[in-house]
Amino acid sequence: MQQFDIAVIGAGSGLMIMEEAVKHGKTVAVIEKGAFGGTCLNRGCIPSKMLVYPADLIREAQLGSRVGVSYGEPEIDWEKITRRMRRQIDANINLAEEIKATEGVTVFEGSGSFVDRNTLQIQLNDGKTTSIQAEIIVIATGSRTRIPDIKGMKEAGFQASESFFAEGFPKKPYKSLMIIGGGSTALEFAHIFSAFGTKVTLAVRSETILRGTDEEIAPFVKKQLENAGVRVLYFADAQEVHAKDGQKVMTFKDKQTGETYDITAEEIFLAPGIVPNTDSLSLEKAGVQTDQNGYIITDEKLRTNVNNIYALGDINGKYPLRHKANYEAGVLNNVLFGDNTREASYDSVPQAVFTHPQVGIVGLSEKEAREQYGNKTQVFYGSYSDVIAGISMGYSRRHDDDGFVKIITDDKKRILGVHAVGPQAAMLVQPYAYLMNAGGREQAEERGTWLPIERAMTIHPTFSELAAWALIYPQPPK
Fold first, then answer.
1. Domains in the chain, please, with CATH?
2. Mind spelling out the 3-state secondary structure of the chain?
3. For the segment 251-292, what is each residue's pLDDT rounded down to a tens digit?
């Protein structure tokens, strides 16, 4: 049986652990059954942004008449858009080859499961089985789309991010699309396809989209999506679906009134949430504890309850974001190979929703702040039309798309949360994420340094990464 210093299950952010281990002369096993690069590269934030940006351009062009520039109907080169997206996804091929050629690393293409706390059995993709042992095991297997149990769904067919960015990618934009879900993925796809001319229906089981965000964000975004032609249905509980005349007909039940109704679309896209990829790991054989939803329980040093087993990324149920997973990998590298002084903190996790309008978030909502800080909570607002940069883009208090930034502090000016909705909202909140990571025990020594940037998470993918990574991951000059 092969022996390794470290085994990493999952080739997304887990590869950052592999890279640091190799630098320290460790032998590493990397176990991955699918494409290298994780969710972000293959079916998440990277390929989706290759669709979001063209959609953004279309929406911006539609607003051009406000500032004296008018355009005709956009000409969409879907083949070129597809080709550019595929080029990004195909980076996983080169990544896999680079990893396989790395000295000290052995790649196992297959699915790993625990035999005991140090032993993994690997079901290889070629049908063979092998076993390995490792002193330290890092679980970074990510998550997948939760597929709801809806009568007739399998027979009628559907798309989710896993299939959409693979064999299910359409040869042209859909004529009509029904999206199930109200989170960031659902809203991104609503923006993308509505901009490309698709008739989009967004069906949400609850009373709002973007659950968990500040209470003023969702109504604003909903209004703008509806202005863009997206039909948004709340309390929409899917009952069954069937195919008819080349279309898909889904029956919904209104959770408030009990009434049923049908929605017809060319395709169904499922984005109702995610589930962790823990069900095939046989965690019970290693004694690793999970919560009621199957997420692995980790502490501030990414340790599980088993002292040689760690977990990071979507698998621990704390914010399914690539920059959060990368941040955790940095913490874990310090724990395993550094001075073991870093601890993961989730008090100021910045995030963005790349819909139209864009949403940026970090910290507490106003409701959360008032629950924790009571009358010490202070709230500040600013609108795009308050500054010349926004006015020059055509924003005005006369229009209902005049976005805003909302800053929540306590009575001592400590930043508790920042929420923005409008153009480049993610970049507006990012500086506050850095400020929220400043200070601490070494405050005097840190004043004026870029340590808060190193400590903070930087929203992915945004231009904020350019300024942050120049410090953290410096490249040689051109």
1. 2-42+87-145+275-337 (3.50.50.60), 153-272 (3.50.50.60), 357-472 (3.30.390.30)
2. CEEEEEEEECCCCHHHHHHHHHHCCCCEEEECCCCCCHHHHHHCHHHHHHHHHHHHHHHHHHCHHHHCCCCCCCCCCHHHHHHHHHHHHCHHHHHHHHHHCCCCEEEECEEEEEEECCEEEEEECCCCEEEEEEEEEEECCCEEECCCCCECHHHHCCECHHHHCCCCCCCCCCCEEEEECCCHHHHHHHHHHHHCCCEEEEECCCCCCCCCCCCCHHHHHHHHHHHCCCEEECCEEEEEEEEECCEEEEEEEECCCCCEEEEEECEEEECCCEEECCCCCCHHHHCCCECCCCCECCCCCCECCCCCEEECHHHHCCCCCHHHHHHHHHHHHHHHHCCCCCCCCCCCCCEEECCCCCEEEEECCHHHHHHHHHHHCEEEEEEHHHCHHHHHCCCCCCCCCCCEEEEEECCCCCEEEEEEECCCHHHHHHHHHHHHCCCCCCHHHHCCCCHHHHHCCCCCCCCHHHHHHHHHCCCCCC
3. 999 999 999 999 999 999 999 999 999 999 999 999 999 999
Q: What is the pLDDT of residues 102-126, one digit of tens each?
A: 999 999 999 999 999 999 999 999 9
Q: Band of the pLDDT at 471, cuts 50, 70, 90?
A: confident
Model confidence, pTM: 0.93
Inform me whether the pLDDT recorded for 473 exceeds 80.
no
